[in-house]
Amino acid sequence: MDELRELYQQVILDHNKNPKNYGKPEAHSHDSEGYNPLCGDRIHVYAEIEDEIIKSVRFEGSGCAISKASASVMTTMLIGKTVAEAKSIFDGFQEMITADVNSSPNYDKMGKLAVFSGVREFPTRVKCASLAWHTALAAIDKSDDVVSTE
Amino acid sequence: MKDIAALEKNVPAAALTYDIDSVYNDFPILHKPIRDKELIFLDNAASTQKPQIVIDTINRYYQEENANIHRGVYYLSEVATRKYEEARETVRKFLNAASEKEIIFTSGTTDSINLVANAFGREFFKPGDEILITTMEHHSNIVPWQMICEDTGAKLRVAPINDQGELLIDEFEEMINSRTKLISVVYVSNSLGTVNPVEKIISLARSQNVPVLLDAAQAVAHTPIDVQKLDCDFLAFSSHKIFGPTGVGVLYGKEKHLEKMRPFKGGGDMILQVTFEKTTYNALPHKFEAGTPNMAGVIGLASAIDYVTSVGLEKIHAYEKMVLDYGTELLADIDELRIIGTAAEKSGAISFIIDNVHPHDIGTWVDRDGIAIRAGHHCTQPVMDRLCIPATSRASIALYNRKSDFDALASSLKTIIEVFR
Question: Which residues of B are catalytic?
């Protein structure tokens, strides 16, 4: 059960229960919808971007604790970052959640995102953790297509 | 052997049971621990486990009997052909079909429905014709018809269900009219466990002379089926949902329909004579079995049917009802849990949601206790939309499940509710 406790850390449960930056904003410059056809999870990410700086990020949708907490933590990470920084943070996040189970990576530089390191023990849940990020990046890139995890 | 004597005497369900320990021991995978925990397999609506006898039959086929069937004049081909055609007879008897010509081997329920959609629908549907299904269909009994409707100009109509997940039979009846060319309904819903009133559906269809296809994927392993008594026109099921191998299925069709239908796929084995000018098709059932079939799969399916028959479907039906009732009561007792699908007649599956815990989190959590359940929309998105939920968790049983499996599930669910509180 240790891996399970690591997956469902209190921080994740708290974000699931009380997600940050939840709900459609009054105004936004960018947005995108993400969909995981395997479980039916849907997320909509809204962003306000000015001069390559992400001024605000909000989301709404339904999903499991992992996807909701991931979206919530993501919004707190992205606000104030440049578009380039956002992409670089996502690359690190993706690397962490898909890292080999037997490796022992250093998560110190992951900051708040380190709470999702347990996801790598659960390959079926990687898409739950990455859905919000894929959707946010699509919003930033102004792609109008619905993002799918498949 | 059917335990008709017990049925006639209306004896209590306990008398209509079988040796569960012995059945449980017939399935080797159930004895393989998952992360040091006993496997509790409650995802039988998705696919069932295989008894040793089925595994042995398939092994023996490849070790001792394998060769391509039909027209081989040597020993092995004759053995394989005989076994393959004996399997057809096993299926015929199992469904009580009138003739072996009415048993077509396919790759599964989906393939069977697609066969009817293409060889019957594409051939006979005209613009304005209607196909009637229900809200609780699996995607495999929705999408093939949508595709045929696009091509033929026919219209797909969907009969509604109530909040309990039961078909609204009066509305259903009203939707049958002179334009209705086919009714295709699920016998038992995979996501809700609802048993549809198929006898009533068929009698309504008969009065308007409309053929009926039954998707029996979730029925075959749980309830005895007699296609002549039911008087259905088509019936589809998958081998892997009745303890047989994957990649095999059956389409039963009344001979009068099958005779009129054009082959769906062209190729070897489905022809009598081929010239570049003209090809004549083989007789039933071969005209619908183009190419080398899944011989090992078909022979494995026959072995699975023999196994189920030896336990007895009446007994399985009675035993499973007892386990399902027990599980339903146990889960319903959990305050935070709501059962989705509370039809009066249910079989096989319990779908549920838990306040503030997503089905995917539930699935991952109970898996760590060795419990396999399914989370998601179960390929029935329209049902989820109708009931205004994105997904459910589903525990579905087979003849080897025990009441204690639900004790374990309930206990695991209580811990996740506590953690997510």
Answer: 379
Q: How many domains does chain B have?
A: 2
pLDDT in the model for residue B126: 97
Asked which of B249, B276, B309 is the last residue of a domain, the reply is B309
* Residues belonging to chain B: 421
Please say if the pLDDT value at position A136 is more than 50. Answer: yes
Contact list, B368 vs chain A (CB under 8 Å): 1, 3-4
Provide the shortest C-alpha distance from residue B171 to chain A (in Å): 29
CATH of the domain at A14: 3.90.1010.10
Q: Are B46 and B175 part of one and the same domain?
A: no
Residue whose C-alpha is closest to residue B294's, from B225, B244, B235, B254:
B244
Please answer whether residues A128 and A67 qualify as being in contact, where contact means their C-beta atoms are separated by less than 8 angstroms.
yes
Query: In this predicted structure, what is the pLDDT of residue A150?
Result: 65
Cis check: omega of the bond before B285, within 30 degrees of 0: yes
Q: If DSSP codes are grouped into helix, strand and coil, which group holds residue B128?
A: coil
Give every residue of chain B whose pLDDT is below 70, as ranges: 1-15
Decide: pTM greater than 0.90.
yes
Q: Are strands A53-62 and B212-215 parallel, antiparallel or unpaired?
A: unpaired
Domain count, chain A: 1
B136 and B275 part of one domain: yes
**A95 or B2: whose pLDDT is higher?**
A95
Are B43 and B122 found together in one domain?
Answer: no
Q: In this predicted model, what pLDDT tens digit does every residue of A27-86 receive, in sequence order?
A: 999 999 999 877 778 899 999 999 999 999 999 998 999 999 999 999 999 999 999 999
Is B364 close to A3, i.e. CB distance below 8 A? Answer: no
Question: What number of other Cβ atoms are within 10 A of residue A85's Cβ?
Answer: 15
Neighbours of B369 (CB within 10 A): 20
A119 touches chain B (CB under 8 A): no
B180: part of which helix (H) or strand (E)? Answer: strand B180-186
What pLDDT is recorded for position B2? 47
Helix extents (H) in B29-74: 52-60
Q: B175 and B300, same structural domain?
A: yes
Please identify, among B283, B309, B335, the residue that sits at the C-terminal boundary of a domain: B309
| A75 in Cβ contact with A68 (< 8 Å) | no
> Can you give the residue range of the structural domain that contains A144?
2-148
Q: In chain B, which residues have their Cβ closer than 8 Å to the Cβ of A41? A: 360, 390
Q: In this predicted structure, what is the pLDDT of residue A36?
A: 85
Would you state the pLDDT for residue B17? 86
Residues spanned by the domain of B245: 55-309
Contact residues of B toward A, CB < 8 A: 356-361, 364-365, 368, 375-377, 381, 384, 390-391, 419-420
CB contact under 8 A, B360 and A39: yes
Report residue B91 as tokens: 């299926």
Nearest CA in chain A to B385: A40
Q: How far apart are CA B218 and CA B46, in angstroms?
A: 9
CATH number for the domain that contains residue B224: 3.40.640.10
Per DSSP, the residues of B198-237 read HHHHHHHHHHTT--EEEE-TTTTTTS---HHHHT-SEEEE
B364: which chain A residues are within 8 Å (Cβ-Cβ)? Answer: 4, 7, 122, 124-125
